[in-house]
Amino acid sequence: MKILVLNCGSSSLKYQLIDMDNNNEVMAVGLCERIGIDGRLKHEAEGKDAYISEAPLPDHNAAVKAVMEALLDKDHGVISDVSEIGGVGHRVVHGGESFASSVVITPEVKAAIQDCCKLAPLHNPANLIGINACEDIMPGVPQVAVFDTAFHQTMPEKAYMYALPYELYEKHKIRKYGFHGTSHKFVTQKCAELMGKNVEDINIITCHLGNGGSLSAVKNGKCVDTTMGLTPLAGIVMGTRCGNIDPAIVNFIMEAEGLSGKEVDNLMNKQSGVLGLSGVSSDFRDLEAAANEGNKRARIALDTFHYTVAKFIGEYLVALNGTDAIVFTAGIGENSASSRQEICNYLTFLGIKLDPEKNSQRGKAQCISTEDSPIKVYVIPTNEELMIALDTNRLITA
Ligand code: ADP
After folding, report:
1. Are 117 and 31 within one domain?
2. Same structural domain, 233 and 358
3. Where residue 29 sits, what CATH number does that domain have?
4. Mind listing the pLDDT tens digit for each residue in 240-296?
5. Number of domains in the chain
6. Which residues are CB-neighbours of 82 under 8 A, at least 6 positions away?
7. pTM
8. What is the pLDDT of residues 200-241, one digit of tens each?
9. Is 148 a catalytic residue?
10. Residue 191 located in a structural domain
């Protein structure tokens, strides 16, 4: 069966077509950008020239139609009929407390996703538009929702409750949800495979370090804590997000800079993190280059990032009462040997030691700690699209 994986943002749509019967081969990948502005589609398929269309994309319906046209195109396409697509898997950002796993989309599921729009006002509405567009354009093709929050629904109350008046949780569902769940789940399963164990038998700390980043404490294969919160702003220092700060700073900045709450929220999401600290870039390649050339603020940004990640690993050693392994994934986790080394430098008291040769390799899922390291360290490339396709395939063939 061929599964179309869709990730709809407010003005973008990323897609992959994956052939589940052919070793999960990615047949095509693409991206629609500037939806509702003008429109651009880039489509790539194995063994074929990349295809770019600048035809207008006034809305997500037009974008889904353009994706279909690209997939069916006689020169650049990979299928000859829409009926070859057996199912569509949608990345949905927020499932609130309603979804602890992926589900086949029904009218009730759509209503529950709609209910979560107030928790993710930038993302869930776009996800719903994508679902509706697929229903219009591919009627009858089963669709599955895979939630960023689902993997974290196993957290105990003591981990997800904020010490605010309890009524705020009851009234508005203010609590920790966590994000990147699809990635944390994928690398957890992969880690169990690499360790030769059942997923129920591993206790690990997963570090998803990308432009956005989060850590999870995973006990017996289930998430018991994670660093992101009600929103993806919480936790570690990120590319442009500040992560955990003194909550009183919000009001302080509002008064000191004469900004509205919305403006401070924007500042903390888009102008903070390593970008705000360094004034150089949110990209770790730029930061590493600048720090190597002696840029002090780039060094401060990198040091702050590594220190916060290491401290959360410490927190999760407590949550798990130890750990079997630490897993690094996503853009920085997979590619930055120096970041992995600098984070692990804080953990030498545990006997953790990286093998420099293995730590310098890229692109492969493997253990990068030395034989005698009592806690193993792994690099595992994440694959959220494959996780979505696997869940979609499993649910619609069940
Ligand atoms: P997202 O999906 O959140 O956009 P990614 O997981 O793709 O993020 O990670 C993107 C980040 O990964 C970039 O901003 C960059 O900082 C980092 N990155 C990518 N390649 C490298 C590299 N070779 N060395 C250091 N950092 C890298």
Report:
1. yes
2. yes
3. 3.30.420.40
4. 999 999 999 999 999 999 999 999 999 999 999 999 999 999 999 999 999 999 999
5. 2
6. 68, 72, 138, 141
7. 0.95
8. 999 999 999 999 999 999 999 999 999 999 999 999 999 999
9. yes
10. no
- Residues whose beta carbon lies within 6 Å of some atom of ligand 1: 210-212, 239, 282-285, 330-332, 335-336
For residues 267 and 256, is the Cβ–Cβ distance under 8 A? Answer: no
The secondary structure element, H or E, covering residue 307 is helix 296-320
The pLDDT tens digits of the residues spanning 333-351 come to: 999 999 999 999 999 999 9
Which position among 21, 73, 148, 246 bears the catalytic label? 148
Q: Examine the domain organization and report whether 232 and 337 are in the same domain.
A: yes
**Interval between CA 282 and ligand 1 midpoint (Å):** 9
212 alpha carbon – ligand 1 mean position (Å): 9
> Based on the domain organization, do 205 and 136 belong to the same domain?
no
Residues 125, 208, single domain; the answer is no
The DSSP result for 327-373, as a single string, is EEEHHHHHH-HHHHHHHHGGGGGGT--B-HHHHT--SS-EE-B-TT-
| Residue at which a domain ends, from 147, 173, 188 | 147
The neighbour count for residue 353, using CB atoms within 10 Å, is 17
